[in-house]
Specification:
Shape: globular
Strand order of the largest sheet: 3-4-6-5
Largest sheet: 4 strands, antiparallel
Radius of gyration: 24 Å
Helix content: 25-40%
CATH architecture of the largest domain: 2-Layer Sandwich
Mean pLDDT: 80
CATH topology of the largest domain: Muramoyl-pentapeptide Carboxypeptidase, domain 2
Structural class: alpha+beta
Distance between the termini: 78 Å
Low-confidence stretches: 1-17, 36-42, 198-215
Bound molecules: zinc ion
Number of helices: 4
CATH class of the largest domain: Alpha Beta
Number of domains: 2
Order of helices and strands: HEEHEHEHEE
Length: about 220
């Protein structure tokens, strides 16, 4: 048989194993790639820089009962779902040799007042949330010690935090006037942007969850 340009049909299937397998493999790889992309997009849909944590309906920011909080580590108490996810995040990061140490998570109202006064006295009110509006007051924000842009730890967080419902809000991102690499928020229940995924955005607390264009530390 001569080397014809269009000889594909001439060769019986069992003699075209190589190319066939190659084609099948390429299709499988392509399909898997699409599946992974779709999965990632679906899983990370709520991890949008504009998304913010939902308030806890029926409760007051910074005045959460102890029963709603869990201890994540020495300096970190968090809302129980956020805290459970944070514990997993810290554990998995450690397995990847990344040390994630929360310096503060839940911040009660009195502490929010303290920091607001502290920064306002320095003429930098924008560095602290108005007391009663910080997402730390819902136990759904964490400040990590020594977490900075451009580090391996920050890269790990960018790649993985969303798997645990933790998100880096837009106002805190690099280049923003009040960039805070250490401040991350939990939107594992959908957050304000995707509240329809199963969480009500209505309720007594919602008016207190104004989007913060300020930092909180
Ligand atoms: Zn913070």
């Amino acid at each position: 048989m001569g080397a014809q340009m269009n000889d594909v049909p001439v060769s019986p299937p069992w003699k075209t194993k190589g190319p066939r397998r190659g084609r099948i493999l390429r299709r499988v790889v392509a399909a898997a790639g699409v599946a992974v992309l779709v999965l990632m997009t679906a899983s990370c849909g709520y991890c949008d820089p504009d998304n913010r944590p939902l308030p806890l309906v029926g409760y007051t920011n910074g005045k959460l009962p102890a029963a709603l909080l869990m201890t994540v580590s020495a300096n970190c108490q968090a809302e129980e779902r956020a805290g459970a996810d944070l514990k997993k995040l810290i554990s998995d990061a450690k397995a990847a040799r990344i040390s994630m140490v929360p310096g503060e998570c839940y911040r009660d109202y009195a502490t929010q007042v303290y920091w607001r006064n502290y920064w306002c006295n320095l003429g930098k009110c924008q560095m602290a949330a108005v007391p009663g509006t910080s997402n730390h007051g819902w136990g759904k924000a964490a400040d990590f010690d020594d977490l900075d842009f451009g580090t391996a730890a920050f890269a790990w967080m960018e790649a993985n935090a969303w798997r645990y419902g933790w998100n880096h809000p837009g106002w805190a991102q690099q280049g923003k006037p009040a960039a805070e690499p250490w401040h991350w928020e939990w939107v594992g229940d959908g957050g304000t942007m995707y509240g329809s995924l199963g969480c009500s955005t209505s309720g007594s607390g919602s008016s207190q969850d104004q989007p913060e264009e300020v930092t909180d530390r």
